[in-house]
Amino acid sequence: MLGPISLLYCLVALTFTDESVKEKEPIYIGKTALIIMDMQESFMFDGNAYIKGAENLVDAINDIRKYFSHLFDVVIFTQEQHPMLHVSFYPTYHCMRPGDIVELNYTLDGRLCRQHPNVPKWTIPDEHTVECDLEKGTHILVQQELYEPHNIERVLSGKYSSKIVSRLTTDCCNDVIVVRGQYHHLDSASAFYEKLNNVPTTLQSELKQRNIDTLFLVGIAIDLGIIQTVQYAISQLNYEVYVVHDATVPYKRERLPMCEFTIPKMGAHLICMNDLYNIRPKKNVKEEKDKADKCGKCGKCPEGDTDKAAKDAKDAKESKDAKDAKESKDAKDAKESKDAKGSKGAKGAKDEL
Ligand SMILES: *[C@@H]1O[C@H](CO)[C@@H](O)[C@H](O)[C@H]1NC(C)=O
């Protein structure tokens, strides 16, 4: 069912840990996002940029949603939407082939230098490019790998389709889609930014507004996209990161051992689907979801219910407040003089976050 190499890793991991998985102390996680990377039709069996084993991920990811939905506060899909003459496509250049690498110079503000030794005619629209004075040396040199055209924007069927595979379980009301790769002149790998860190995607703001502190990464591809996302999430943003190995595929199989070595070195947990049984949410995500579902589709409460729910909540809070106020008054009084001193510093620290 799974790609042979991923399967091998997780089988080996299991032979060593099988007994202890059940014995192990459960791992408690905080507010969590499941990030499903680039599960798009171009990468599937009929797609123009087929990645071996990609189609097997659909069942794996659906299983994760089915059996472990209590772990995730939000599910986020990344979706590449490349324009036709994208900088990462080999036909954008003359005489290039998939797998070739071209060197590109960018200005510090992220525009592409038009001069290129290998291409007689540059086909990327002018608004993203600029004539550079390369003698000055104030440019960023990027090694751009070239691919078969894939994930073309607004193409929703056929081998160039950027559509998210329809067999994947989705929850249209609550799932989030983060689009990337929509600039002609910039490629993207990390889910957080287009190549050159100064152009962010919407991912970080989606995570931040939900107070997410833990990420689970699955999808395409562990060596191209996922590994860059892990690196940035940990080193720049301090997330706790889990990569579910047997719910990913490599773009290039020969890079898999490098990923298996590097991802844990970066501080992420490289786990297998089976390990999810050992992970528990700190709070009950399912309870909160059920509560939200009672408010109807898409979290909007029906008119009558809103008032009732609000009233119940208010009543409950009022009686609790009254009780709390009594109980804590003495303690509070005693604390107040002390807090007055410390609170200014504490507030400052909070604001910085
Ligand atoms: C990029 O710029 C450097 C100088 O900064 C230059 O030596 C090199 O040839 C340029 N490469 C391309 C592909 O334009």
TrEMBL record:
<feature type="domain" description="Isochorismatase-like">
    <location>
        <begin position="153"/>
        <end position="254"/>
    </location>
</feature>
<keyword id="KW-0479">Metal-binding</keyword>
<keyword id="KW-0732">Signal</keyword>
<comment type="similarity">
    <text>Belongs to the isochorismatase family.</text>
</comment>
<dbReference type="InterPro" id="IPR036380">
    <property type="entry name" value="Isochorismatase-like_sf"/>
</dbReference>
<dbReference type="GO" id="GO:0008936">
    <property type="term" value="F:nicotinamidase activity"/>
</dbReference>
<dbReference type="GO" id="GO:0019363">
    <property type="term" value="P:pyridine nucleotide biosynthetic process"/>
</dbReference>
<dbReference type="InterPro" id="IPR052347">
    <property type="entry name" value="Isochorismatase_Nicotinamidase"/>
</dbReference>
<keyword id="KW-0378">Hydrolase</keyword>
<feature type="region of interest" description="Disordered">
    <location>
        <begin position="292"/>
        <end position="353"/>
    </location>
</feature>
<feature type="signal peptide">
    <location>
        <begin position="1"/>
        <end position="17"/>
    </location>
</feature>
<protein>
    <recommendedName>
        <fullName>nicotinamidase</fullName>
        <ecNumber>3.5.1.19</ecNumber>
    </recommendedName>
</protein>
<dbReference type="InterPro" id="IPR000868">
    <property type="entry name" value="Isochorismatase-like_dom"/>
</dbReference>
<keyword id="KW-0662">Pyridine nucleotide biosynthesis</keyword>
<dbReference type="Pfam" id="PF00857">
    <property type="entry name" value="Isochorismatase"/>
</dbReference>
<comment type="pathway">
    <text>Cofactor biosynthesis; nicotinate biosynthesis; nicotinate from nicotinamide: step 1/1.</text>
</comment>
<dbReference type="GO" id="GO:0046872">
    <property type="term" value="F:metal ion binding"/>
</dbReference>
